[in-house]
Specification:
The protein is about 35% helix and about 25% strand. By secondary structure, it is an alpha+beta fold. It folds into 3 domains: about 35 residues; about 190 residues, Glycosyltransferase; about 325 residues, Beta-galactosidase, Chain A, domain 5. The strands form 4 sheets. Strands 6, 7, 8, 9, 10, 11, 12, 13, 14, 15, 16, 17, 18 and 19 form a 14-stranded antiparallel β-sheet that branches. Strands 1-2-3-4-5 form a 5-stranded antiparallel β-sheet, with no helix packed on it. Strands 20-21-22-25 form a 4-stranded antiparallel β-sheet, with no helix packed on it. Helix 16 packs across helix 17. The chain is elongated and about 90 Å long.
Length: about 775
C-alpha cells in the first residue's frame, strides 16, 4: 500500500510538472508548437477539404476552375524548378518568373489538398528549397529604384505579395513536409523574409498605405502558419518603436511612416485607410489592389484567431469595403479611374473574385453576390469558391443592383465623399461619379470637385487616370511615368476649374493632403431627379468653389441628362478654365471657331498646360455654346451658357511628350477671363444611336434648345433651360442654407418662386 501511495504521489507530481510546462508555453505564445493544429489552417481548412471532395459534382464552375488550374500547374511542373537570380524590373524575365512562381505555388498547394496528388506537394517542396538556398545569398535587388528595395523583386511590395501567396502554399504542405525540411525553410527563408520586409524596412511596413497592408498580411500569414506569435503581433500592431525613433518625413509621394505602434499594423490600416462606409482613401483602383491582403489576412485570422472578431471590426468594415468597390464600377464593371489608376481594371480582377467569394461564404450569403460571381466567370480554388459555385449551381443568384450612393471619405467619414448617381431609362444607364474627397494620400490627384460620366458603353466624360503602363517593361519598367506628375495629377487634366493656370494647392502634396472638400447636400430620394452638391474653400487661397450636379430623367429626353452648375468666388479677378474631357469624335458646333491646322502652340508652360495643344479658339455670339460628338454608337450634345466674352478652346493632349506616353485625348475648355465671381452652366444630353452596319442615324440631334443663368447672388443661383418643343424648367439652388425645412422666396424679372428645401426644379 505504501509503494502504491508513493507511486500515486509521483504521478500527481509529474502531472503538476507537465501543467507548469503547459502554462509556461502558453504564456510564451508558443501555442502552435504545443498543440499543433492540422494544416492547412489559413484560407483552406482540413475539414473544408473533405466537404469539397465529397460534393465537387454539385459545383461545376468549381470543377472547371480545378481543371484550369491543374493545366497551369502541370505545365509548370514540366518546366521544372525555375528560381533565377533577381535582376529585372517589372515586366522583365526574372520579375515575371518569380511572380509566376508565387501564383503557381499557391495553386499547387490547394490542388494538393483537393486532389491528394503528391506531385503538387513535391513541386512546392522543391521550389521552396530552391528559394531557401538562394535567399541567404541575396543582397538588395540590383535596381535599387524604390524607397524600399526588395530582394526577390525590385520593391518590398512585390516581396510581400510573394509571401502572402507562398505562405498559403507552405500551409497546404506543412504536415506533408519532414520536420527537418520545415526547420530549414523557416530558418533560412520564411523568418528572414518576414524580418526583412518588416524590421529591416520600417519605412515600408509601419505606415498607412496599400504597400504596408501587403506587408502586414504577409508577415501575419506566415506567422500563423509557423505558429510564430511575435510575427502575428507585429503584423497586427506594427513594429515596436523606441522613444528615440523618429518618423520619416513625408515625401512627394505621400509615403507616410508612423513611429507610434498604435498607428501602424493591420488594425491601423483598418482604422485609418477606410471610411465608415468602406471607401478607401486612395480610390477604387488601389482599394481593389489592397482588398486582397485585407480579406485574405482577415479570413486567416477568422480561422485562427476568432477572438479578434476581425470581420465584425468597425461594424463589419471589410464587408462594406467589398460592396463599396462593387458600387464604384460603371455599367460594364470597370472601376472609376479616379486618382492614380490604370483604366480598364474591373471587378473581374483576381482580387475581387477572391473578396466576393470570401465575403459571400463567410459573411454575407447575399444571393446578389452570386450574380457578380457569375459575371466574373471564375471562383477561387478554395472552400469559399466552392460554396459560391455550389450556390450558383443551386440557382440561388439574384441580380446585383448598383445603386446611387454617397461613400464618405476619411477614417471618421468627415473628409468629403465620392457621390455616385445612377439613372436609367429603357435599360440605358447614365452614371455620374462626383469627387469631393480628401487628397487620397500619395496616389491622389489635385482635382477637387471633378466628375466623370458613364453610359452603357463606358466613359462619356472621362477622368484621365494615371500615366502608367503597368508591368510594360518598355515604359520605364512599368513604373509611373514622369507625365504622371506633370500631367495626370494636375488639375487641368480633370473636369474641374483651374484658376490662373495653376493646379489646386499648386500641386503640393502636403498642402493637398491636409484638406478635403465638403458635401453640401446629397439627395437621391427622387429617382427621376437625383442631385449632389459640394463645396471647396482650400484649393486656392480665398477662393470658394461650389458645384452642383444632377441627373434628370424626364419624358422630354431620350435618356437621363446631366445638369452641371459650377460657381466660383475669387478674391481678385482671375482666369478660370473649365475643361470638358469628352470621349469621341466632334461632329459640329453652333459657334464659330478658328482652327490652328498648320502650326499649333501649347496652352501654357506648367501645371499640365505644357502638354496641351491649342487646336482651335472660338466664341459664341448668342451666349450659347453647343457641340455634339459621337462615341461608341451614341450621340452626345453639351449645351453651355457662355457670355460672349468667354473663350471656347479646343485642346488636345500630347504636347511636350517625346516618348509618346500620353493619350491624344480631346477637350473643350470654357475660359472666363478677369472674373472674380463666375458661374459655369452646362447640360449634357445623350441621345440617339448610329450603327455602321445599317448606316442609319437615329435621333442624331438633341432636344435641348437653350440654357441660361437667370439669377445669381450669395443666396441663390437660378438656371433656366428649355427644349425645342417648348418644355421649360427652372432649377434653383439655395447657396448658403442647406436645411431641408427652410422656406425660400426668390423674385426674378419674369417670375416669383417659392419652395422649401435645399433646391427645387420647376417644370412648365
Amino acid at each position: 500500500m505504501k509503494q502504491k501511495a508513493l507511486h500515486i504521489k509521483d504521478v500527481i507530481h509529474q502531472r503538476w510538472l507537465v501543467n507548469c510546462v503547459l502554462i509556461s508555453i502558453l504564456m510564451s505564445g508558443g501555442v502552435a508548437s504545443l498543440f499543433a493544429q492540422k494544416h492547412p489552417l489559413l484560407i483552406l481548412k482540413k475539414q473544408e477539404v473533405n466537404i469539397i471532395r465529397k460534393n465537387a459534382a454539385k459545383a461545376p464552375l468549381f470543377q472547371q476552375v480545378v481543371a484550369n488550374n491543374k493545366a497551369i500547374v502541370d505545365q509548370e511542373i514540366k518546366l521544372g524548378v525555375q528560381v533565377p537570380v533577381p535582376k529585372d524590373m517589372a515586366g522583365g524575365y526574372t520579375h515575371e518568373r518569380h511572380k509566376q512562381n508565387f501564383f503557381v505555388l499557391q495553386k499547387a498547394g490547394n490542388l494538393f489538398q483537393i486532389t491528394g496528388n503528391e506531385k503538387y506537394a513535391r513541386y512546392i517542396r522543391d521550389v521552396l528549397l530552391a528559394y531557401a538556398k538562394l535567399y541567404p545569398k541575396l543582397g538588395l535587388h540590383p535596381t535599387k529604384r524604390s524607397y524600399a528595395t526588395g530582394k526577390i523583386f525590385w520593391q518590398c511590395l512585390n516581396d510581400a505579395n510573394w509571401l502572402v501567396y507562398v505562405s498559403q502554399a507552405y500551409d497546404c504542405v506543412y504536415d506533408w513536409l519532414k520536420p527537418e525540411e520545415r526547420r530549414l525553410l523557416e530558418t533560412q527563408l520564411f523568418r528572414p523574409f518576414a524580418d526583412f520586409i518588416s524590421i529591416k524596412n520600417p519605412q515600408f511596413f509601419n505606415r498607412i498605405h496599400n504597400h504596408s497592408t501587403w506587408g502586414n498580411a504577409a508577415v501575419g500569414m506566415i506567422g500563423l502558419v509557423m505558429g510564430d506569435q511575435e510575427l502575428i503581433k507585429r503584423a497586427l500592431y506594427g513594429l515596436q518603436w523606441k522613444k528615440s525613433d523618429q518618423a520619416q518625413k513625408d515625401d512627394d509621394d505621400g509615403l507616410i511612416t508612423l513611429p507610434n505602434q498604435k498607428k501602424a499594423g493591420f488594425f491601423a490600416q483598418l482604422d485609418h485607410a477606410f471610411s465608415p462606409d468602406g471607401y478607401y482613401t486612395e480610390g477604387p483602383y488601389y482599394q481593389r489592389y489592397a482588398i486582397s491582403p485585407f480579406i485574405l489576412f482577415a479570413k486567416a485570422l477568422e480561422n485562427n484567431r476568432p477572438d479578434l472578431k476581425i470581420f465584425q471590426y468597425r461594424n463589419g468594415l471589410l464587408k462594406k469595403a467589398v460592396y463599396a468597390l462593387l458600387y464604384q464600377t460603371d455599367h460594364q464593371g470597370l472601376f472609376f479611374p479616379i486618382n492614380d489608376a490604370q483604366k480598364g481594371m474591373s471587378f473581374k480582377s483576381r482580387e475581387l473574385i477572391s473578396a466576393v467569394d470570401i465575403i459571400y461564404e463567410s459573411q454575407a450569403k447575399d444571393p446578389s453576390l452570386l450574380s457578380i460571381a457569375t459575371q466574373q466567370g471564375k471562383v477561387t480554388l478554395d472552400y469559399s469558391g466552392f460554396v459560391v459555385a455550389h450556390d450558383i449551381y443551386q440557382k440561388k443568384a439574384t441580380p446585383f443592383i448598383r445603386k446611387s450612393i454617397e461613400l464618405r471619405d476619411g477614417k471618421n467619414g468627415d473628409e468629403g465623399a465620392l457621390g455616385i448617381l445612377r439613372s436609367s431609362k429603357n435599360d440605358q444607364e447614365i452614371c455620374l461619379a462626383f469627387k469631393y474627397t480628401a487628397q487620397g494620400l500619395g496616389h491622389g490627384h489635385y482635382d477637387k470637385l471633378s466628375y466623370s460620366l458613364y453610359g452603357n458603353q463606358g466613359e462619356i466624360v472621362q477622368d484621365y487616370g494615371a500615366a502608367r503602363w503597368v508591368n510594360i517593361d518598355q515604359k520605364q519598367g512599368g513604373r509611373y511615368l514622369p507625365e504622371n506628375k506633370t500631367w495626370a495629377k494636375q488639375t487641368i487634366a480633370h473636369n474641374t476649374v483651374t484658376i490662373n493656370e495653376k493646379s489646386h494647392f499648386k500641386g503640393h502634396f502636403k498642402t493637398g493632403n491636409a484638406h478635403h472638400a465638403d458635401k453640401y447636400f446629397f439627395d437621391v430620394s427622387n429617382p427621376d431627379f437625383q442631385i449632389v452638391s459640394a463645396k471647396d474653400v482650400h484649393a486656392y487661397p480665398g477662393v470658394k468653389m461650389h458645384r452642383t450636379l444632377a441627373l434628370l430623367n424626364d419624358p422630354s429626353f431620350d435618356k437621363p441628362i446631366l445638369i452641371d452648375v459650377f460657381q466660383v468666388d475669387a478674391p481678385q479677378a482671375s482666369q478660370l478654365d473649365l475643361p470638358l474631357w469628352f470621349q469621341g469624335q466632334l461632329l459640329n458646333t453652333n459657334f464659330e471657331y478658328q482652327a490652328q491646322t498648320q502650326q499649333q502652340t501649347t496652352l501654357g508652360s506648367q501645371f499640365g498646360y505644357q502638354h496641351l495643344w491649342k487646336e482651335a479658339v472660338g466664341k459664341s455670339s448668342t451666349d450659347q455654346a453647343k457641340f455634339t460628338w459621337f462615341h461608341r454608337g451614341e450621340f452626345f450634345t453639351a449645351t453651355s451658357w457662355v457670355p460672349n466674352q468667354d473663350e471656347l478652346i479646343f485642346a488636345r493632349l500630347g504636347a511636350n511628350d517625346p516618348s509618346f506616353n500620353l493619350r491624344r485625348d480631346p477637350a473643350l475648355i470654357i475660359r472666363k477671363k478677369d472674373q472674380k465671381k463666375a458661374v459655369f452652366i452646362t447640360i449634357i444630353e445623350p441621345h440617339g444611336t448610329y450603327s455602321p452596319v445599317n448606316e442609319v442615324p437615329l435621333k442624331p440631334y438633341g432636344q435641348l434648345d437653350k440654357v441660361k443663368l437667370i439669377h445669381q447672388s450669395d443666396q441663390y443661383t437660378a438656371v433656366e433651360f428649355n427644349t425645342s418643343k417648348g418644355k421649360r424648367w427652372t432649377f434653383i439652388i439655395a447657396n448658403n442654407n442647406n436645411h431641408l425645412k427652410t422656406r425660400h422666396h426668390l423674385k426674378t424679372q419674369n417670375k416669383t418662386f417659392r419652395w422649401q428645401g435645399l433646391y427645387h426644379l420647376f417644370k412648365y
